[in-house]
Specification:
single chain; 2 domains; 9 helices
Length: 443
């Protein structure tokens, strides 16, 4: 039995590891495609991009594990069946469930690892990649002044050059508009030729201009006919531009903490209790406000009288005044109730998102076992190995699991289903897995 276990484990681990990394890579490519416009053209270093990719990849691990288990299970059992090794195993008196046991042990270990990863590692990875992504999107594009175009990324300046030599430093026919002054008209610097270079620390851009002229209007408050106008010719002029806005500055990660995706199950539990208490206090406060605006009775002469009885005893003029006042208060209450209803719905949805994140840590982890119960017996039934059939079958099963899960998650988020709705996909796939297992064992 030890040799059989080693054979099955060896056949299973290879496709499992390969599929896991392929799944992470595919999910990472989807992430890059989503944010490619924010990343491209900003002159980011390889280290920063690698850090973002590594942190983002860590968030895909809990989803990649079930995909890997499903594909590897179908592929392994299909290969064994296609080469009649399952027939030899059964003829030797070893039942199918016993042959599946080595893979099952690996899957159980992966389930535990997936949960621990989702509960402890993933919140930190989400925090880091969200902070890095925020810094990247906030960063200006890399400095790139093209010939014939107006470049306005440097704060307070617009630069245009007609020609740029291949060395990337020598410029011809340069026009610089300076909008930093108080005048409605910018100061203008024109030069026939010039060079540009950055300081070693890349904090400043140095322009050395030759054979040019600068124009400026000195008094912004003077009328159009009396504005003083200054024109200065120069043979050489040096301008310095601050490039601090182009630098990549790391934000303090603490400002991103507090999101439900950055919490473990214990933190989610405590946060759910706190949010529910806040919602209850808000609801109680709103009810009390309505009671204060529209009381059901009034105390007069030491006794309680209903508002209806009191109004009936009033003169017509006084009754009309009270009626108008009551109508105004009722409209005010109706408006307050509408506003509070929206607030209550928003609070409830935010609490539901905490529930979704809490249950997702469990459902994605246990999906390894559920999809193993689907994949392994399915592979032994169809007896087709290789890449073709296992790939198609695993895509079909996982898409079914994922689509049902997404529909249920939306229902939970909107309050149409309770938090147990996060387990709908598990409840759908588990009977399929048990049925396939039963059929495979009976063959």
């Amino acid at each position: 039995m030890k040799k059989l276990d080693k054979l099955i484990v060896k056949s299973y681990v290879g496709p499992l590891v390969l599929t896991f990394f392929i799944a992470v890579f595919v999910l990472l490519m989807q992430f890059i495609w989503k944010y490619v416009d924010d990343i491209a053209g900003k002159g980011l270093s390889v280290g920063i991009i690698a850090e973002l990719m590594l942190d983002a990849s860590a968030t895909f691990v809990p989803m990649a594990m079930p995909i890997a288990v499903l594909f590897a299970s179908i592929m392994t059992m299909g290969n064994l069946g296609e080469h009649y090794e399952l027939v030899a195993i059964k003829s030797g008196g070893v039942p199918l469930w016993r042959a599946m046991m080595p893979m099952g042990v690996i899957v159980v270990v992966m389930t535990v690892v997936a949960f621990l990863f989702a509960d402890y590692v993933m919140p930190s990875a989400v925090l880091k990649y969200r902070a890095t992504l925020y810094d990247i999107t906030r960063k200006k594009p890399a400095l790139n002044i093209r010939p014939g175009e107006y470049y306005s990324e440097i704060d307070g300046f617009v630069i245009r050059v007609n020609q740029k030599d291949p060395d990337g430093k020598t410029l011809h026919d340069i026009t610089i508009y300076d909008h930093r002054g108080s005048s409605s008209q910018p100061d203008i610097v024109v030069a026939r030729k010039g060079t540009m270079q950055t300081t070693p620390d890349e904090r400043y851009l140095l322009f050395t201009l030759y054979d040019g002229c600068s124009y400026s209007e000195n008094d912004a408050n003077a009328n159009a006919e009396s504005k003083p106008f200054t024109r200065i010719y120069f043979e050489k002029n040096e301008l310095t531009f601050d490039l601090s806005g182009f630098a990549f500055d790391k934000s303090d990660e603490s400002i991103f903490q507090g999101g439900y995706q950055m919490m473990n199950t214990r933190q989610l539990d405590s946060n759910i209790v706190r949010l529910k208490d806040q919602r209850s206090e808000s609801l109680a406060s709103q009810k009390q406000n309505i009671r204060n605006i529209m009381p059901s009775y009034i105390v007069t002469g030491g006794e309680k009288k209903s508002c209806a009885d009191l109004c009936d005893s009033l003169p017509t003029r006084e009754y009309n005044r009270v009626y108008t006042d009551a109508l105004s208060k009722a409209e005010r209450c109706l408006s307050d109730v509408g506003i509070h209803s929206q607030v209550f719905q928003s609070q409830t949805e935010y609490i539901n998102r905490h529930y979704i994140e809490w249950h997702r840590k469990w459902t994605l982890s246990l999906a390894c076992i559920v999809l193993f119960l689907v994949g392994a017996p399915f592979g032994s039934i169809v007896r087709k190995g290789g890449l073709g059939m296992p790939l198609v079958a695993s895509v079909v099963f996982f898409v079914l699991y994922y689509v049902v899960g997404m529909i249920a998650e939306k229902a939970v988020r909107e309050g149409a289903l309770g938090s147990v709705g996060m387990w709908v996909s598990t409840f759908v796939m588990l009977p399929i897995g048990l049925f396939l297992t039963y059929k495979a064992v009976q063959r």
